[in-house]
Amino acid sequence: MEFDKELDARNLNCPLPILRCKKGLSEIAPMQTLKIMATDPGAVKDFQAFCKQTGHELLQLDEADGSFTFYIKKRADT
Amino acid sequence: MAKKLALIASKGSLDWAYPPFILASTAAALDYEVQIFFTFYGLTLLKKDLGDLKVSPLGNPAMPMPIPMPNLIQMLPGMESMATMMMKQKIADKGVASIEDLRTACLESGVKLIACQMTVDLFDFKPADFIDGIEFGGAATFFEFAGESDVNLFI
Predict the structure, then answer these.
(1) pLDDT tens across B34-86, in order?
(2) Is A51 a catalytic residue?
(3) Min CA distance, B97 vs chain A (Å)?
(4) If B41 and its partner were Cys, which of B3, B12, B18, B130 is the partner (CB 3.0–4.6 Å)?
């Protein structure tokens, strides 16, 4: 999957992955995609909740060896 | 219009320093407007030097300990420092943020931090003891924001 910015939030615990994600999204243009990796087991639910509440779109979620990779498309009107 | 979160932070130990800063920084990431009102022992969390934050197993039977430890042992000199050191090590090992980092994240994301003026006077704290960028106010200041908030929590 294509992306415009990549962030590594592995080995960080709640709420750091979400804070990194928010910062990463602020550094890309609307409709661009952020790729962010996390190992916090709570990250899946948290990223889903983050996207639901902020209106950014969770395009894809991959899991491999306890590591999660999220592709998040930034909302158009930000 | 952005949702609003109003918190009261009333505790000043290392463990209880986490909930207000975690909730505030996360809410800010979710585009909430956030204010934290620091009162009584919570004022410790606004000091420039957070090195005084400690955790004590005394009076907290739920704290996980490596070996069972009777209260009589926990009260010995140095036990509080040891428990604090162990907690800080655990925090670093597990990739949990430091209080400094979470507080900085709050300030950077526009969370408003308010020190209770009455407690500052009561404990003879000096404004110079506290970090820059905070405000001082009383209960009415808190309600000005809390009254129109979506979520209000006392911690």
Answers:
(1) 999 999 999 999 999 998 899 988 888 888 888 888 888 888 999 999 999 99
(2) no
(3) 7
(4) B12
Domain annotation for chain B: domains and CATH numbers: 4-53+98-154 (3.40.1260.10)
Distance CA B32, CA A52 (A): 14
Q: What is the CATH number of the domain that holds A41?
A: 3.30.110.40
Q: Residue A56's domain spans which residues?
A: 5-73
- pTM of the complete model: 0.91
Q: Are A7 and A37 in contact (CB under 8 A)?
A: yes
- What is the percent of chain A with per-residue pLDDT over 90, rounded to a whole number? 95
E-strand ranges in B39-146 read 112-116, 135-137
- Whether A78 maps to a domain, the answer reads no
Helix (H) or strand (E) holding B15: none
Structure tokens at B82: 């040891």
Interface test with A, best of B26, B94, B98 (most A CBs within 10 A): B26
Spans of chain A below 50 pLDDT: none
Structure tokens at B43: 């004022």
E strands within A1-78?
5-9, 33-38, 57-64, 67-73
Asked whether residue A55 is assigned to any structural domain, the reply reads yes
On whether the CB atoms of residues B112 and B34 are closer than 8 A, the answer is yes
